[in-house]
Protein: PTS system DHA-specific IIA component
Amino acid sequence: MVSIVLVSKSLTLANGIKELVNQTVEHQVNLTVATNYQTPSDLVNEVTPETILYAIKEAYNDDGVLVLLDTYHSAHNAALAIANLEYDIAAHVSLCSAPIVEGTLAAASSISLGASLEEAKREAHKTISVKKLLLGENIPDFTIFPKNTNYEPVRSITAPVWLYPYNRFVIPRKKLYPHLLLEEQKRLINVIEQSKRDIDWLTEEVHRKLGEQYTHIFSSHRFLLENTELQLTVCSMINKYHCNAEFALQQTFIDLIDTYAQMDDDNMRARESDLDDILSRMLRYLTSSPPPLTQPPYPNVILVTKQLHPSTLMTLEPNRIKGILLSHGNPLSNTTLLANALDIPIINGAGKSALTLTNGQNITLKKIQNMWLYQNSYISH
Structure:
């Protein structure tokens, strides 16, 4: 019979779910808890990979183990735990993104009736749709799924590092004479038009390579450039402070990025990379800076950088990029969406240590149940 592992920072929550499940299925299903000790400081920290690994091994049997998580942050550590299992065992352990309470109840009920690992996981996932239906919320008719979703318990890619330069422009304010302000505004308008042409080309490239469902990414870039209020804001700053267009544009976008960063919606906060993409393009034209690199120094590379713009990704040769490792980045960004669509493994939030890698250094990315990981060897067996 399939076992269940609950991963939760809260022992109280995990034990409550376990009690509820045991009452429902009359203790027929083996349910193991992977949690921190119940102290205030432990509630801040995620459950460690070692703790999850121990719980999976304790719960394991040949029918498999279904792992449910309290927060999405736990997914990374759970995947690290699976990465340190023997291959034959890892093949029978499955992470489940269903809500931890309803998902566990649904999975346990199906397991008590003889469901397999995949059947139990499917029943757990149904719970979110049922809740939406009962609450009268819309259930999307379709979802854009990444193409690289074939189930593989463990897979690895080893390739040399390509340290891709990422430098945000820092434009100083330049004081201009009044008679030069109109010319400065014209420079801005010309660059906006030039950027629109670039974005039109990118939209066509996305349509050609990936299909129409991804063209909205750069259509939104163009929409922002066509925003007359944004243009007026920059032009007003040029006039008010007698400053150069580059500085006025930079300050306007810094305020805009900060506004997005304060939003409650995770998807809106993830648009920072798009805003930075648009800003960098225009500043590059205004300062006559060279375009981004497009040719890797080696036939096959793992691109390593702080953050990668969506437009930069679309100008690279995807067959030569074996993986992307970002020290920062956002899993909800359009860069991540495009990388998935291009079948390029991408890891966000790898930390500053990723930037200490050197060009040509071989590194390995490991895939655990559709989650790509870097530096997962620190768990002791």
Observations:
- Residues 66 and 188 are 56 Å apart (CA to CA).
- Residues 139-151, 376-381 have pLDDT under 50 and may be disordered.
